[in-house]
Amino acid sequence: MKALRWHGNKDVRLDDIPEPQVKPGWVKIKNGWAGICGSDLHEYLIGPKNVPFNKPHVLTGETIPTTIGHEWSGTIVELGSDIPDSYGLKVGQKCVVFPVLGDRNCVYCVEELHGACPNWGFLGYSGFGGGFAEYCCIDAREVLPIPDSMGLDVGALVEPLAVAWHAIKRSSVKPSDAVLVMGAGPIGIAVILGLQAQGVTNIAVSEISELRSEHARNNGVRHVFNPQKDDIRQRTLDISPDGCGVAVVYECTGVQAAMEAAIQSVRGGGTIVNIGIFEKPLTLDWNLLNRKSLNYLGSNIYTKGEFQEVIDAIADGRLKNPERMITSRISLDEGLEKGFHALLHEREKHVKILIGVDS
């Protein structure tokens, strides 16, 4: 079967590899759609970081090359033995995959603080296959059914939407709050959709790119600012109900200047949620954080319950039209040129590029 695999720095190849075989307790899935994540690009550009490159991953026993893609959906084509009926899985069923790997035994796995597990990993990074392939075999415990009414393309958005959903829940935002989203890339747009699903309407976005700013406007954001032209602090004071600044800032860029603007723009006693990944060490004005009595929260990954909450929110219409995130649909054969290279050289044009097995 065809699979996009990570071989090394700036080295992703379309390989022909054996089709995986199901085993007891596992499920075989014909993959449908898979999204290219910002972390895939980081790995491509500055890796190896997360892939098992110098020794086998402790949980999968695999090293590179590994099949990538951790935001994906598909259809169940075979069930292994010993799968409990309570999982509700059946052949022909649409599904998404919960991609986080953990040892299941440590205190952090029990608490579902997955990124802190000493043995953590990701399907699509660490082995066991991923979404950028024709088929995969996955532990049945990590397979979540989705409604027949949900398209597999939308199913592939559950993972990035869950990243945003987790961050929003951590922030304890209220519908009456004014909030600021730093960046209108994939996670920024996912945060916007998640906030709207929870009744938050006074949303501002800070974004340099005019094309990405337009994506924010198309997703219902009225206050879109350009930090190269606008005084972000003053603009956020203007839109806040009490003139003191926004209650919550969601930092989705991984850029030093954006975090500095976040500290300036959030009201005293407010919250900054760090979702973006910084490629360089971050320097903060800790004295200003202290003086303003700010809450600084890291937000990493999600829980399986939150994954299900996103599925439910899409199904019942609270997460409205998430397919608006999709800016391109391409085939596996086009994955490198029209996927990775497009995001590197035409990043502003895109929010989410999906790779489809049958496209």
Architecture overview:
The protein has 359 residues and is α/β, with parallel strands linked by helices. It folds into two domains: 186 residues, Medium-chain alcohol dehydrogenases, catalytic domain (Quinone Oxidoreductase, Chain A, domain 1, Alpha-Beta Complex); 138 residues, NAD(P)-binding Rossmann-like Domain (Rossmann fold), CATH 3.40.50.720. Helices cover 28% and strands 26% of the residues. The strands form four sheets. Strands 3, 5, 6, 9, 10, 17 and 18 form a seven-stranded mixed β-sheet that branches. A six-stranded parallel β-sheet has the order 13-12-11-14-15-16, sandwiched between helices. Strands 2-1-4 form a three-stranded antiparallel β-sheet, with no helix packed on it. Strand 12, helix 6 and strand 13 form a beta-alpha-beta unit. Helix 4 crosses helix 10 and helix 7 runs parallel beside helix 8. It is globular. The mean pLDDT is 95.
What are the main properties of this structure?
Quinone Oxidoreductase, Chain A, domain 1; alpha/beta; seven-stranded mixed beta sheet; metal-binding; oxidoreductase; single chain; 18 strands; zinc; Alcohol dehydrogenase; six-stranded parallel beta sheet; 2 domains; zinc ion binding; Rossmann fold; 359 residues
